[in-house]
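Structure tokens please, single chain.
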Amino acid sequence: MSGVEAYPILSYWHSTKPIYSCDFNHKERKSNKFLTCGGDSRIKIWKFKDTDEDSGEDASVSATDDITNSIKTHFQKAKDRINDVEYITTLNGFSKPVNVAKFSPCGKYIAGCGDDGYIIIWEKIEDSSLEQYKNDLMEKYIKIHKEQQGFFMQGQLKNDVDKIINPYNFPIKIAENFNDEYEDEYENIDDIKQLYKIIKYFPVTNLSANEQLEIYSLDWSPDSQYLVIGYMNTYIKVIDVNDSQQPYCVVKKNHNDVVQGCVWDPKNELIISMGADRAICIYKPKYTNNKITDLKLINRIVKGELTPGKQENIFAQVDFNFFRKLQFSPDGLLLVVPYGIYKNPNGDELNCCHIFHRANLLRGLNKPVAIIPNLKKRCLCVSFNPNLYKNDEESTNGVFGLDYKMIFAIATDDEIMIYDTNRLECLMIIKNLHYYPIYSMSWNSAGNKIIISSKDGFLSTVDFKSYNFGDYYKDINMEPLAHVESNKIVVDDVVNDPTEPKTINVLQIRKKR
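Here you go.
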């Protein structure tokens, strides 16, 4: 499709282990910084290089490059993509795989959790402070005799960096070394590009009670003051990032099975959790003296009203060790939920995505306002473009009656589909990026790039190089809307639609199962 490129990036990001989560830092809009975490028990920070940095070439060189690129095979292009990525640093501290890690909305913190049952929160060391640290270290090493400096630096620099990273001397557990090519060695002070220090480190569960530890979901509050986590023993917890004495604000158990997904409403009014019990729970935080002290359960949705007067299961049954990555739209008005199912007139159970309106969620209604049906495989995760765009000139306020449109992606095992909220039409389908299921995806802040992580251990990108979703919409109305009456489920039939969406196919090799 013109203006869109999709490639895997052929590099061993986490020592050939699965990449369970990826996330862009939306606060640093120009940096294109992102993180990945996975089976090697590490979180790694990367950035896409600024293409303007290499714009000093003359026209003849650029023309030659264009000709060369046109005759490159897909494999060669995918292999070259690693040159677009710059490694920044590694965050250690986990002894088992890291299932999820996210930047805070303010961009200052990173929170991660995984199979060892610990939550670790890092804070970025500001550039000015980092430069001061580096200058202090340099002065220290200059005092060492030149003949001894090389020997001294090999181990001492790493020890000094570890003290900066772990200033409170938390008893962190480091996983075994997988001989990673990106492992920090700090042989020279110039190797230190960026550092994060650990400010919180604690177990989520009672380790002495032999509870199952695995944590599968985590999300930040919009003000970056709280975390909501969901884990193996069916509980969710809200954590106060700033309270060192009693970090747990609220503990709730309203699921009957593993909590596989949590999301915090960008308007800070709702928290949604989703579990392997085929239910979503809708909570409303309660505050006392500007601190969260409780969560009020508004509704627990297991069955929904897809046809008038009939209640039926609307979420699929899956193994407990899968993630369910649901997401709110950036304006907070829509919640798109994966792992949906519905029955057609013949009684066949089909895969879909359900869309709920926040007004209905606040009123405790269990009726989706729209579905995206006829997915060939289960929908695994949802990710919204963080920007709002002006509606097309020929259209009015669209399906949801909004003055703007939003763009979102849904992922099945092997496809990514891009939709807009104006007409709920599929704009494009990207296929065959990975050999194994997709686990996570994230848009950058500019809304022109998606990164996708997979069980196969590779990361891929979708670049909307010259594809235009529309002009940015500036005037965002964040006031809650009234209850949405909808007696009709909006259905966008991807299979039978005569205007078939463009398909971007990138792998010709037979997929492994």
